[in-house]
């Protein structure tokens, strides 16, 4: 079963979020060597984000960045293919993004029978 792990960092400063680039390289290697890696990316800085909203009249509004009432920043994601949710949660707990006030949200990938 495929699961997406959304990595929400409490801070973009590696000193305060509890992990280093080396921690990420080790985790990437572990996920790859376990044979569960489907896809994953790190996202560019939040200042590069653009939000699109479409109103009831069909008009598109484009603004700089997301302005969520949250101190967490979506930093990236992994899609893994593991037997069940418990295994996905184990991998999420190992993720450096779960440290230092960050969180990893685990969601199953919907299967529409395609």
Question: What's the quick description here?
Answer:
The protein is built from two helices and six strands; from the N terminus they run E-H-E-E-E-E-H-E. It is α+β, with helices and mostly antiparallel strands.
N-to-C order of helices and strands: EHEEEEHE
Put simply, the count of helices is 2
Query: What is the first-to-last residue Cα distance?
Result: 14 Å
Q: Determine the fraction of residues in helical runs and give it as a percent range.
A: 10-25%
Radius of gyration: 16 Å
Structural description of this entry:
This protein has about 110 residues and is an alpha+beta fold. The protein is about 20% helix and about 35% strand. It contains two helices and six strands. It has helices spanning about 20-35, 85-95; strands spanning about 1-10, 35-40, 50-55, 60-65, 75-80, 105-110. The strands form two sheets. A four-stranded antiparallel β-sheet has the order 2-5-1-6, with helices on one face. The radius of gyration is 16 Å and the shape is globular. The two termini are about 15 Å apart. The model has no long low-confidence stretch (mean pLDDT about 85).
């Amino acid at each position: 079963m495929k699961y997406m792990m959304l990595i929400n960092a409490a801070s973009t400063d590696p000193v305060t979020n509890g992990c280093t680039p080396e921690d990420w390289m080790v985790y990437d290697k572990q996920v790859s060597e376990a044979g569960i890696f489907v896809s994953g990316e790190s996202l560019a800085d939040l200042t590069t984000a653009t939000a699109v909203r479409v109103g009831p009249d069909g008009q598109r509004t484009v603004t700089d960045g997301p302005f969520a009432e949250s101190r967490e920043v979506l930093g990236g994601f992994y899609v893994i293919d593991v037997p069940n949710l418990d295994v996905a949660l184990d991998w999420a707990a190992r993720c450096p993004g779960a440290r230092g006030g960050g969180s990893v949200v685990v969601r199953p990938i919907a299967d529409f029978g395609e």
